[in-house]
Structures are given as C-alpha cells and as structure tokens.
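Moderator note: this is an archived Q&A kept for reference. The question asked for a predicted structure of one protein chain; the sequence and the answer are reproduced below.
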Amino acid sequence: MFPCAVSAMSLNDIEKMPEKTTRSAAQYLPRKITYPSLCKAAEGCRGCDLYKHATQTVFGQGPATAKLILVGEQPGDEEDKQGLPFVGPSGKLLDRALAEAGIPKKEVYVTNAVKHFKFTATSGKKRLHKTPSPREVAACKPWLLAEIELIRPAVVMCMGATAAKALLGNKFALTKHRGTSQPGPSNTKVMATYHPSAALRAPDHDARQAMYAAIVEDLAAAQALLH
C-alpha cells in the first residue's frame, strides 16, 4: 500500500518550484496525496494542452516500496492506447536491460516526466512521437515530484535527456553526465542514461548495441547504489 500523504512542507515545495508557470499541474494536485488520489487527479489535469489530443493520462506504476524509480520522457503510441508506461517497443527493450542488470522489474516504479502522449499525425493516421517542450515538461513536473515524494526511492534513473532536464535543469548534458549520481528531490540520488528508444533508433547495429550496453551498465550502477 502506498504511503498516506505527502507532508505540507513537501507540497509547498512542489507548488513553489522555480519552473512553475501560471498554468501547471500544481493547480490539480489533490489536497491529500496518495497514489490513488494522484492517479485520479491526473486524469483531469489541464496544466497544458497535451490532454486535448492524447487518449488518456498515463500515470506511473510500481510498488510503494520501490527503491528505484525509472523516469522516461512521455508515453508513446502504445502506452497512450493501453494507459500504462513502457509497454511498447521501448518498454520491451527496457525489460531486457533490467533483467541483464539484475534488477527485478516488479521492484521498480516506472513513470514519465510528461503524462500525455505528444505526437504528430501523418496522412496515414500514424502517430509519430514529438518531443515535449520545456514549458510542457515544467507544467507536468508537479506530478513527477509528487510521485518521488510519495515513494521516497533511493535512486531515480532518468531515461533520456528530457527526463534528466526535468529534474536536474536544462543545462544538464546527457553525454557528459550519463551514469553519474547527483542529488535530487526528496533526498534521492538522480542518475541518467539513454532512453531505450534512442537505442532502437540508432543508425546501425554496432551503435544500437553500444547504446544498449550503456543502458545496462548505468542500470547496474544504479542497482549498486541501492545496497
């Protein structure tokens, strides 16, 4: 069972965050923060315009006792349809990487920096991923901070630059700081690695293998910090 509530001090921190814009998810946070109340409130979030075209809100999933949180960028096409994080091709690759790193998937909480799918529709009705803007990431950040505060993991692993910048600021450089540990919210350690989709999109077999190996290496490093 998830913890009952976030402290008043933590809620104040969330609502007064520097990135807060006039319109953001902070306006939709429930008075008493529990996992069910967060999920329910996120369904009605209008903190940015992404809800207008997405099928549904895709909130995080995993155990309340998770010592590790994985944060992706946003739901993809399959995630948007199913309402679950990391269930598409990227999720399958992530599952394989977690297994290689010796991390049981059932012990990990998985979420995204942005809770709605942002896409461009083609003439053939295929929906192509579109990177969320900094304003959209900032607007959605209160949900992510609330999840972290609720679960209180030891380590947050950001999958990709967008997730890393959401927690570590826009000056964060993935190529420079990948795999290193930095202080994060709620007394967590924050690390970053490549997003699984980046490994899938790499231009050739060797590049894909190298990026995948880096993800496994970084996940293993995160696992080592849990003990």
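Archived answer notes: The beta strands are 68-72, 108-112, 119-121, 127-129, 155-159, 182-183, 189-193.
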